[in-house]
Write a structure and sequence with these properties.
Blueprint (H helix, E strand, L loop, with lengths): L2 E3 L12 E5 L4 H6 L10 H8 L9 H10 L2 E5 L1 E5 L9 E5 L3 H6 L4 E5 L1 H10 L8 E4 L11 H8 L3 H4 L4
Parallel strand pairs: 2-3, 2-6, 6-7
Antiparallel strand pairs: 1-4, 4-5
Helix pairs in contact: 2-6
Length: 167
């Protein structure tokens, strides 16, 4: 397995209230240079439903604007790792991202981890550094075929209170 380095910058600003963390970007996401880039990944459909937005953001610019408009910061737990394709189960030789840039800028109230591997990696490498409330959400990957789009939207609805206007 070849060592892969994370090259996608985090998305956040001063009004971000939640941090959504995956494990490490898939090859398709790295190629697209943005999170959840595989066309079969349901993240953007799920988030659009939870935000009650009529259209699913398609381009990188639309997705960044969506995240910021809805007070969501997004990044990944790992800065580098050895990984086979997009298989979280193959992850080895991990190095975590430094999340301090996000926590020092944004008003993060809760961290959500997108899948079991992201949750386990966060607990192992980062939880002790950041005094934050965290929760595991199901993976939106097509590999998680056990969950329908409706099931995922229901699970991700916990984001909804944070996505409302800051007033």
């Amino acid at each position: 397995m070849e060592m892969q380095v994370h090259t996608i910058a985090p998305v956040y600003d001063g009004s971000s209230r939640v941090l959504l963390l995956g494990s490490f970007p898939s090859p398709k996401s790295r190629e697209m240079a943005f999170f959840y880039g595989h066309p079969q990944n349901r993240m953007w459909k799920v988030l659009a439903r939870v935000a009650c937005e009529p259209t699913v953001p398609q381009t990188v610019a639309e997705r960044k604007a969506f995240l910021l408009r809805n007070h969501i910061a997004m990044w990944d737990v790992l800065a580098s790792c050895s990984i086979e394709g997009a298989s979280d189960s193959s992850i080895r030789n991990c190095s975590p991202n430094d999340l301090s840039c996000i926590f020092e800028t944004a008003r993060i109230e809760k961290v959500f981890l997108t899948g079991s591997k992201a949750y386990d990696l966060f607990k192992r490498y980062l939880l002790s550094q950041y005094d934050c409330d965290c929760m595991r959400l199901p993976s939106t990957s097509a590999a998680n075929a056990a969950m329908s789009l409706d099931d995922l939207a229901a699970a991700y609805s916990v984001l909804s209170p944070y996505m409302k206007s800051l007033g």
